[in-house]
């Protein structure tokens, strides 16, 4: 039997530079890990470098004074940013009041009402809405919408002038560049984000739940109310928070239409400012402490948006886990 | 007895008036929501195409930008070059890092605590306002080298693209069937070999499509550009020397001016920018549709 020679052959086979290959494996692993870590590095560097640069402004006013001060006067080295925080909150909350119901409606239309072909068109429309750059929304808003809508604002103010409460919020307007216009633009820009997440959330509602509701004799609306909405509540909260975070950070479209006043007003038809917008508006003419203060506003904005986004992700993930539990 | 023999009425004709009304109103309102979203898109498309279309000409694409807002006539050439160069450089930085980061998350990190943390932070990073990225690059790069340059804008856009590329590439890597990895390992290939020559190529169309979407998003960004890049009126092909400009920055600059000449240039720039962004989006869609791997 000469076959005894053959089993030895595999031992001779060299599978190719064993040590070199192992080193390559280790090197590759280190490379991709480093690439993954850049995310953490960038986020950390943002916080550290901008905080250091903005520090003189925090020091000038005190951290609390910087956030709660109501007077912004760069020429006198007074940097109170509360009017901008107020503007950010007011515009993005109004935007959410408009955008959240509309987005949920669109998502319901896509998942429950539309036929397959119309569904494709509507999804395309929403995707296109998401790709329009914010500066183009701002351009259309300031040159086309504002001139047309200003008389409408005044008309509305006249209409509600006898109503106490409402007449403070919707008072005389002498400009179309104000909180409401900014909020309208923000609402349109937030719709695609909220819609896409709401769709994902609705897609996880078990088909059996829906069929069960129909079998009990529910109309479509009763099915939505009874089966879809309770199941998706957590996910929708997360979606709304993501939209809110996006709206608070939106810069250019708001900078174009909010007017640029650094005072606060309960009248939504008055011009104001937001944290992101004031940085873009005043950056070109800023230097020294003024520039540090603008960067400090950026730090404040960064902190707020990171917290909101983090919470939103946690809420969405919780909801996802809950929904998966319902599946099995 | 007779009622049992008749078939149950399933037409909904006997619905109480109140329930039928609620159902119809709700359906109507839901349809109205779609209209509310479609109207602004139509308005934007109509205004940009009609107003921008009349501003476009060959000279608009090639001439330098007039220094005075009031000067009539065309010129956005430097901004078009700036948009393409700055965004292209950003893509060169962000896409390789993003794809390698996705390889870490999907092939190495998986469900380890570090990988899960990076995943969450990448999601959080997509929500960081673009103006903050601009301020970050201004402090960390522009101040250090001492002047505003095009490359600063590239860095800021790369920071914005990075988390989008990572998350979309990871989704695509997840779709690659495990059998491919096992087959490659069975042939004796090491993990880096498997990843480079089996996993990444089979996910390449999806990764390209996601990366192009991120590029399209970045090309329209304005805020980080005005903070880090500055302004120029002439062609500046060198991203590392001198201030630069982009279409988005020019739209912002010209939109607030009361002069018809500058507004017309803003509309022309808007149409050009939207065309560039849509081109990237459409190419991304086509790649995704044509070369999609089977979703399992």
UniProtKB/TrEMBL annotation, chain A:
Answer whether the UniProt record assigns the keyword Transmembrane to this protein: yes
UniProt keyword terms in alphabetical order: Cell membrane, Membrane, Phosphate transport, Transmembrane, Transmembrane helix, Transport
Q: Where is the signal peptide?
A: none
**Membrane spanning stretches:** 30-52, 84-110, 122-149, 179-198, 293-316
| InterPro entries the UniProt entry points to | MetI-like, MetI-like_sf, Phosphate_PstC, Phosphate_Transport_Permease
Q: Which domain of life is it from?
A: Bacteria
What region holds the ABC transmembrane type-1 domain?
A: 85-312
Topology relative to the membrane: Multi-pass membrane protein
- Its primary localisation, in coarse terms, equals membrane
Spell out the subcellular localization from the entry. Answer: Cell membrane
Q: Name one Pfam family in it.
A: BPD_transp_1
Give the similarity note: Belongs to the binding-protein-dependent transport system permease family. CysTW subfamily.
The protein's job, in short, is:
Part of the binding-protein-dependent transport system for phosphate; probably responsible for the translocation of the substrate across the membrane.
Q: What is this protein called?
A: Phosphate transport system permease protein
Q: Which organism is it from?
A: Glycomyces niveus
Native organism taxonomy: Bacteria, Bacillati, Actinomycetota, Actinomycetes, Glycomycetales
Q: Which gene encodes it?
A: pstC
UniProtKB/TrEMBL annotation, chain B:
Which CDD domains does the protein's record reference?
TM_PBP2
* A Pfam family reported for this protein in Swiss-Prot or TrEMBL: BPD_transp_1
Residue ranges of every copy of the ABC transmembrane type-1 domain listed in the record: 80-288
Where in the sequence is the signal peptide annotated? none
Membrane-protein topology: Multi-pass membrane protein
Keyword annotations: Cell membrane, Membrane, Phosphate transport, Transmembrane, Transmembrane helix, Transport
Residues crossing the lipid bilayer are 26-46, 79-105, 117-143, 149-166, 266-288
Q: PROSITE patterns of this UniProt entry?
A: ABC_TM1
Source organism, top-level taxon: Bacteria
Location relative to the cell: Cell membrane
Describe the task this protein carries out. Answer: Part of the binding-protein-dependent transport system for phosphate; probably responsible for the translocation of the substrate across the membrane.
Q: Which family does it belong to?
A: Belongs to the binding-protein-dependent transport system permease family. CysTW subfamily.
Name of this protein: Phosphate transport system permease protein PstA
* Species whose genome carries this gene: Glycomyces niveus
Gene name as annotated: pstA
